[in-house]
Amino acid sequence: MTETTSVRVWDLPTRVFHWLLLILIVVCWFTGEEKGAATLIHRLSGEAIVGLLVFRFFWGFWGGEYARFSKFFAPPQEVFTHIKELMRLRASQTLGHNPLGALASLILLLIVALTAVSGLFSADDDRTGPLSLLFNVNLKELHEVSFRVLQAMVAVHLLGVAVTSFASRENLARAMVTGAKKRPAADAAPDAKTASRGGLVAAAGAALLIAGGLMLMPHPPQAEDHESGHREE
Q: Which CATH number do you get for residue 75?
């Protein structure tokens, strides 16, 4: 039996970002059509997602080795080669993102960003984004369309993780939990280079500043509140 060893790939901040983003997207998913307290939960979750995206942007430059955007761009030939491997259900193992997975991750992040930012500028009878009133802009339709695209991309992402895990004989979800991947001890790669504490503090500080600022902006009363007020009069 081949002896294996663990190689550290995903740093803790990247893993925390990944799972928090997933949780918040699910929360937004199930509160998007609800009324009452769910509208506030939806807004706060969306604003938290904006903060996470700010963190991920800076972490893409200051983070650990495989979290950096410089590791995301593979030559087109490598992407096509990986697709062919997936079609044969025999994909090569990679330490960071595989060529197709890196491209898909970037697209997913951009769609999440479009959905979250358009939500800040959206308004209807039940909910109002904090920047919609400030700039007198309503991107409700864009927000709804981008969220439908995001739902589809989440499904594609989950399918891609499952297919790639099977084809490469590597549990990608577990690696995003533990931060490590198994490799034969004879040719194991070194652990990923870690990020500086200063980069982490700066990225987290920027995220908290943006998300906190949005959450502290006035929350306009909802339609139900107005109706109840009229009934009392």
A: 1.20.950
